Structures are given as structure tokens and as C-alpha cells.
Amino acid sequence: MRAVFFRPDAPDVPVGDASWNGSDVLINSNEDSFEGVAARIFRRTPVLVDDPSLRTFGTTGPSILQPGSLEWFEAAARARSQTEGLAVRMVPEGPGGIGFDPAGLYRPFGEQMERRERVRQTAWSSSSLVGGPFRHVVVGR
Question: For position 52, what pLDDT does the model report?
Fold first, then answer.
């Protein structure tokens, strides 16, 4: 999963993007100032979200997402980009779908998507095509 950040008045000009690799956030910066902004957006602190799908039965109110999951990455990008004056667009990466695995139907959809990202990132990091015109920064533990 990749989060592309841009200014609300210029949606066609990204200032940078961030990718989730299963354990860390990889930052690609188009502007020097974006690295500091991205470090604040993806600081390793919990994110408060008001999502009914995260609540257990019979509960109300917001939920806390701890750092280290794809859900946290997406929630941090959406919630914290606004305070930095940026808008975000989430872009799925990788080939097509996750395929049909009857033996894997015990996984909830969120876990399947996180597994897909983890497998894709492992394949991507072991390929020889890693690189690009951007400055690459890892925001880690």
C-alpha cells in the first residue's frame, strides 16, 4: 500500500509518498521539507480512529490502532496529514488480486490484505529493480 501526499490546492503534484513494507514506512520525497513532515505523520504512536468495524460487539466510541500494522499505516496517513496541511491518496500496489485460496478463507479480509502487502514487499525488496529518482528514507522503530 502506498500513500501519496499532495497539497489540497495542487492534487496533481505529489510532494512525496510513503509505502508500508510490513514493518516499516518507506518514504520517497519530492521536496526536502517532506521528510520532516512524513516523520511526524508516521511517528510510532497509536492512532485514534472512530471505525465501527474495529469495535467489539456492544461497544461504542473510537478505537486505538497500535503502530505496526497496515491499518495503522493507513489511519496515520489519513488522520495526521490534515494537520500538516496535506491531503493523501491511498494507492494499492502490486499485481492484481490476492487469488483464491480455499485453505486461507479463515483469515479476515484485513489480514489477507496485510499478508498480500507483506508478500509483495518481500518479493520487491529481493528484486534487482529497487531504486528510483527519489531520496529514500526509512522511518523505523
Answer: 87
What are the boundaries of each domain within the chain? Answer: 2-127
Q: Is pLDDT at 15 greater than 70 in this prediction? A: yes
> Which DSSP string corresponds to the chain?
-EEEEEETTEEEEEEEEEEE-SSSEEEEESSTTHHHHHHHHT-SS-EEE--GGGSPTT--S-EEEPSSSHHHHHHHHHHHHGGGT-EEEEE--SSS-----GGGTTS-HHHHHHHHHHHHHHHHHHSTT---SSEEEEE--
Answering whether pTM is above 0.85, one says: no
